[in-house]
Amino acid sequence: CNSLVFCDCLVFLWLNGWSVTYTTQSICALKGSTVKLTCSYTYRIGHKVTSTFWFTKWGTGVEPEDLGQEPEYAGRLEYHGDKKNGHNLIITDLRERDSAEYKFRFKTDQNGKYIGSPGVTLSVTDLQVKVTGGHQDKTLTCITTCTLTDNPTYIWYKNGHKVKEDTSSLYSVYFSDADSYSCAVKGREDLHSPAVCQKCWSVIYTRQSICALKGSTVNISCSYTYPSYHEIKKAFWFTKWESGKDPEDLSSVPGYEGHIEYLGDKKSDCTLRIPDLRLSDSAGYRFRFITSGERFAGSPVSLTVTDVVLEMDPTSVSERENVTLTCRTKCTLDPITVYSWYKNGQPIPNSNTYSPVYRLFSVSSEDTGRYSCAVEGHEDLPSAEETLTVTC
């Protein structure tokens, strides 16, 4: 299953020269992945299309609302049109509540309106591991609530390590009490199923250390396992744990109240989202869960929050001298970082670099000004400006 789901033309709807052609009528995609819905349309000669959009909700006597105006899709939609009256809708970071019938609508300058119906039915599913068989000779099945598009290849993990890759969703295994198993599909190995185990306890983090920019948003993700005969009573994140005391749920700690969000929606997923990061959010974050008979906590995930600082050497020079600009962070940002450079608040042409160092050679009086830097993708979080003075 690829992160983008593409489809072939199947449906034509015609009415006096008006039509919407959808590339497929149904798509099954993984939660957290990206999907692409595609259509093309025709209309009467002499008309000119004035607006196009996708929608899911349409009440009697009420005009449908552009999906791009709905808050729950904010930042997750892309519309793409082409010269042949094609139209693509891309939805990222899919959620189960995105499951719906998506329809395309266009309007013309002569009050013409058309909706392609039926639309595209999108079903969003997660992965689950179903266990059947005897005491220890088990058959594991990677199941979904709908049939995934493109017949994916399944990948199996034992105690977090890859052990098998197969087109079959079944895996026969000798299941010991200490082992845990999870599955994923090829191309989206980052979207694991929750792990299953017989008597094991574990918290598995996606990353053990994170470097993030001040002002950005970070997700700290993990999955956890516990014996099947236990029942979860409470699950939460914390940073401080004093000897002899139970750690305090981070969501009720002053300074974090209203600042963090728990995203895990199953009893084996745990994701902590921290938006608008502050330097003071740098800490070791741990996940803890309490069952009907035991309690367990994972090791810390180290989060370092950094700002971007521009260093200029020197800040005052004579013409024809060189100046070195360095964009510094407290930790190494992941993935590979591209740096953007600015003069007087405007991007310097052709200045993006993989290096945090940018050099001005043989400067002139025209190079006098205020300089700053930013990390590509976070241009809204630039460094403070440093002023360069060039004298004759």
UniProtKB/TrEMBL annotation:
Q: Which Gene3D superfamilies does the record cross-reference, listed alphabetically?
A: Immunoglobulins (2.60.40.10)
- The protein, known as: B-cell receptor CD22
Q: Which organism is it from?
A: Salmo trutta (Brown trout)
- Which residues belong to any copy of the Ig-like domain? 118-185, 300-389
The beginning of the lineage is:
Eukaryota, Metazoa, Chordata, Craniata, Vertebrata
PANTHER family in UniProt: B-CELL RECEPTOR CD22-RELATED (PTHR46013:SF4), VASCULAR CELL ADHESION MOLECULE 1 (PTHR46013)
The role this protein plays is:
Most highly expressed siglec (sialic acid-binding immunoglobulin-like lectin) on B-cells that plays a role in various aspects of B-cell biology including differentiation, antigen presentation, and trafficking to bone marrow. Binds to alpha 2,6-linked sialic acid residues of surface molecules such as CD22 itself, CD45 and IgM in a cis configuration. Can also bind to ligands on other cells as an adhesion molecule in a trans configuration.
List, alphabetically, the InterPro entries matched. Answer: Ig-like_dom, Ig-like_dom_sf, Ig-like_fold, Ig_CD22, Ig_sub, Ig_sub2
Under the heading CDD domains, the entry gives: Ig
Could you name the domain of life of the organism this protein comes from? Eukaryota
